[in-house]
Write a structure and sequence with these properties.
4-stranded antiparallel β-sheet; Beta-Lactamase; 2 domains; 6 helices; 10% strand; rod-shaped; single chain
Length: 337
């Protein structure tokens, strides 16, 4: 997985969790507070309605007919205003089975849900006129529920918008960060392919990326310098081998010529001694060259001191070496230094 993709996924998950969980906590707190506040208002209204019912029962006659109960309901509803939507006084015969087990002065509250509405109902059991009555107070929570739903809808829209904007920002940021790394990777590949000394210049990037680019450029320059030194050393070795081979050729040719002359011609004692002396001289020269080569190999990392050599000695060696060739092939050779 690419670094940019990994960075984007991790950062995006963090943004989603932070926005989602944080926003959910805030919206839930607001909606819960809204519902709780409204519920407390209705519960207070239900307690007030129960007190009002008891007061009406104290001053009313023993006749608590349905018409009388209807008047009491209207008066209690009028005092409560818009907090409640309905006030109803039930008898044991008209109350639902869920409330018949309530004790006297005991209340029960619950939400009643339908397809398009939410009703909060509070029921209290009261005893008067030698009979049990159930005071029911209802409040329509539909508007409150819709307001809470609007909060959740707004929260969803905000989360989607923030997620989209945050995702785009994180994507661009990840591309910006990894773009510099991509250029460094490309530069490293070019160095691996032989483009030594490749430099990567990154402007306007983060400090760490800039330091990495500077280190890469230093490394690339060091590689270029090292490769140059290796090439130079290789060239020196090739020149040394070529020069040494050339140096070996001359004494070997002389030795072969004098040896052939000893085998092919009838020579006098002086000529044989001269040929043997020349072979010995050239062999010693080969030995000297071999020793010098060994010294160069052993002391290749040390400073070598050069010494002056008299050219007259070289002239004498050349004349001795070429003498037999000129005599053999009838060629006149002159050496001038």
């Amino acid at each position: 997985m690419k670094l940019s993709t990994k960075f984007f996924i991790i950062a995006y998950i963090v943004v989603l969790l932070t926005t989602g969980l944080g926003g959910m906590f805030i919206v839930k707190s607001v909606t819960d507070t809204l519902l709780y506040t409204r519920k407390e208002q209705v519960d207070s209204a239900a307690r007030y309605a129960a007190d009002s019912f008891s007061a009406f029962a104290d001053i009313a006659s023993s006749d608590f007919s349905p018409s009388r109960r209807s008047n009491v309901e209207k008066q209690i509803k009028g005092t409560l205003g818009d907090v409640v939507s309905a006030v109803k006084i039930h008898t044991v015969d008209t109350i639902g089975d869920d409330y018949k087990n309530l004790k006297t002065n005991e209340g029960l509250s619950q939400f009643l849900k339908t397809d398009d509405s939410l009703i909060y109902e509070s029921v209290c059991r009261l005893y008067c006129y030698n009979d049990n009555y159930y005071l029911t107070v209802r409040s329509d929570f539909t508007a409150t529920k819709r307001q809470c739903d609007r909060f959740w809808s707004s929260y969803t829209i905000v989360v989607i918008a923030v997620s989209a904007a945050g995702g785009l920002a994180l994507f661009l940021l990840s591309k910006r960060i990894t773009k510099s790394l991509g250029r460094l990777t490309q530069g490293a590949n070019e160095v691996a392919l032989g483009k030594y000394g490749k430099k990567v210049f990154i402007n306007g990037s983060d400090r760490e990326i800039q330091e990495l680019a500077d280190s890469f450029n230093v490394m690339s320059a060091a590689v270029e310098q090292k490769i140059s030194e290796i090439k130079e050393e290789s060239n020196k070795r090739e020149m040394f081998v070529a020069d040494f081979t050339h140096e070996l050729k001359t004494p070997m040719t002389a030795i072969m010529g004098y040896s052939q002359m000893l085998m092919s011609y009838d020579l006098s004692s002086d000529e044989r001694n001269e040929a043997a002396s020349a072979i010995y001289s050239e062999a010693k020269r080969l030995e000297s060259l071999s020793g010098q080569m060994l010294n160069l190999y052993v002391y290749k990392n040390e400073e070598i001191k050069l010494e002056r050599v008299p050219l007259r000695e070289i002239e004498a060696q050349l004349k001795t070496t070429l003498k037999f060739l000129s005599e053999k092939y009838g060629v006149h050779c002159e050496i001038e230094l």
